[in-house]
Design brief:
Distance between the termini: 58 Å
Radius of gyration: 23 Å
Number of strands: 0
Oligomer: single chain
């Protein structure tokens, strides 16, 4: 009979399972999925930052369009997600993605209506609005902490 821990079915289910230790001292277990989240967030930030730099510096590269598009979605999504700390993770990611598209569309529509649209200006405006949203969420969170500490 196969189990989830041993998909091959080669070990005896009645024997005590001891993780094997290799010569480096590792037990052979995979790290929990939560440990890779900061690594994925750092990689996403690096990719988004590269896209912003490629667009702002007007560097001709085949990666410019996809990385800039990644920045235009990720930067406002992270800013909106930072403001939505009370929601569960799935709801927060869905609302953040919708908010990112809304921020991008509002910036593009405003710049087109004012006849000031440029790619560099659009990327800079999205970066500025995302930074402002993130800082407002951060300030609101810290203001709530100081008010609670004063009352206790």
């Amino acid at each position: 009979m196969q189990s989830f821990t041993d998909p091959t079915g080669l070990t005896d289910p009645n024997s005590p399972s001891e993780p094997s230790i290799d010569e480096c001292g590792d037990t052979g277990r995979r790290p929990p999925a939560g440990d890779s989240l900061p690594m994925a967030a750092g990689a996403a930030a690096a990719i988004a930052g590269t896209g912003a730099v490629l667009a702002l510096a007007d560097i001709g590269s085949p990666l410019r369009a996809p990385l800039t598009l990644f920045f235009l979605i990720v930067a406002p999504a992270c800013a909106v997600g930072a403001a939505l700390r009370g929601l569960d993770p799935l709801s927060r990611s869905v609302v953040a993605a919708g908010g990112a598209v809304a921020v991008d569309l509002l910036i593009a529509q405003t710049m087109l209506a004012l006849h000031v649209w440029t790619v560099r200006g659009g990327v800079a405006a999205v970066a500025a609005v995302s930074l402002l949203l993130f800082l407002l969420a951060h300030a609101r969170r810290h203001r709530g902490r100081t008010e609670r500490s004063r009352t206790s």
